[in-house]
Design goal:
The complex is a heterodimer.
Chain A: H1 2-7, E1 24-29, H2 34-49, E2 53-58, H3 88-91, H4 96-110, H5 116-125, E3 129-133, H6 134-139, E4 151-155, H7 157-163, E5 168-171
Parallel strand pairs in A: 1-2, 1-5, 2-3, 3-4
Chain B: H1 23-32, H2 39-55, H3 61-67, H4 72-78, H5 83-90
The chains are: A alpha/beta, B mainly alpha.
Chain lengths: ~170, ~100
């Protein structure tokens, strides 16, 4: 390495040509509530908008995010959340979770944040790679046809490490 | 003829003053990103500049896809290094503020 540096012309103004390896992130999405689904989707999309490669790995409750029937019906998880704007005693009452979900969706709609299914389409169009966890598929008795078409492949945890080689990994 | 050396850039490498922009500046930014500007690029650039003049903020990728009607997929083909950054930079605008 030092030899290479010595060979560089003295006083060269240009930085040495870096090998072009793209920055990459891998996001593990393990939660299925509305408020935990979006951070992963938004971060992955932001990465792609900046030209950063993005891999998303959905596992456990995160499977709901890529489940055709559930993607646009995720609920805001307010119970057990200390930041919940409503008292917990009330949150447990019937209909309250639905109300909180409705309020959150309304706000997101005003901000022009796309629904989950559309976010997944945008991510696919943007070149992000979406993968589902094989073990979670078996645990929840899911088939590939239960998933949105943007999911590239069902993979194992070890496959995930291959796909995320060189990436910064974010667990949500 | 203006070049990138004649204009001031902000910390993110965007034009510090949108009024300094000229088509040559767009070409220079594009060259830096290894992009050959086509008519379709110019449609995006013209939309971005017009939208910035009207709204005062650089349009996000989502806004470009929805309002200018350039599909997401195409945006990534036009600006492979990242449309969120490059559409604005080439158009001489600041970094977009939105997350989508």
């Amino acid at each position: 390495m030092s030899t290479v540096l010595e060979q560089a012309p003295a006083g060269a103004s240009e930085a040495p040509q870096e090998e072009k390896t793209n920055r990459k992130i891998a996001i593990i999405c393990s939660k299925g509530s509305l408020d935990m689904a979006y951070p992963g989707l938004i971060l992955a999309n932001a990465a792609r908008m900046m030209g950063i490669d993005a891999v998303l790995f959905f596992t456990f409750w995160g499977m709901d995010v890529i489940n055709k029937k559930k993607a646009d019906k995720l609920h805001a998880g307010m119970l057990g959340n200390p930041s919940s704007p409503m008292p917990h005693a009330l949150m447990g009452l019937p209909g309250m979770e639905g109300f909180a979900t409705k309020m959150m969706k309304k706000k997101m709609d005003e901000m022009d944040i796309p629904p989950v299914s559309e976010m997944l389409e945008i991510l696919d169009d943007a070149g992000a790679e979406l993968y589902a966890c094989q073990m979670a598929m078996e645990m929840f008795d899911l088939d590939q046809e239960d998933l949105v078409p943007q999911v590239h492949e069902v993979i194992t945890a070890m496959d995930f490490y291959d796909k995320s080689d060189g990436a910064q990994i974010i667990f949500i | 003829m203006t070049t990138l050396a004649d204009v001031q850039l902000d910390a993110d490498g965007f034009l510090a003053n949108a009024d300094d922009w000229t088509p040559e500046i767009a070409e220079a930014f594009a060259k830096e990103a290894e992009i050959q500007l086509t008519d379709r690029h110019w449609e995006v650039i013209n939309f971005c500049r017009k939208d910035f003049a009207e709204k005062g903020t650089a349009p996000t990728v989502r806004r470009i896809t929805k309002v200018a009607g350039v599909p997401t997929k195409e945006m990534y083909q036009l600006f492979p290094g990242g449309p969120g950054i490059l559409a604005s930079r080439i158009s001489g605008l600041p970094k977009p503020k939105g997350c989508i």
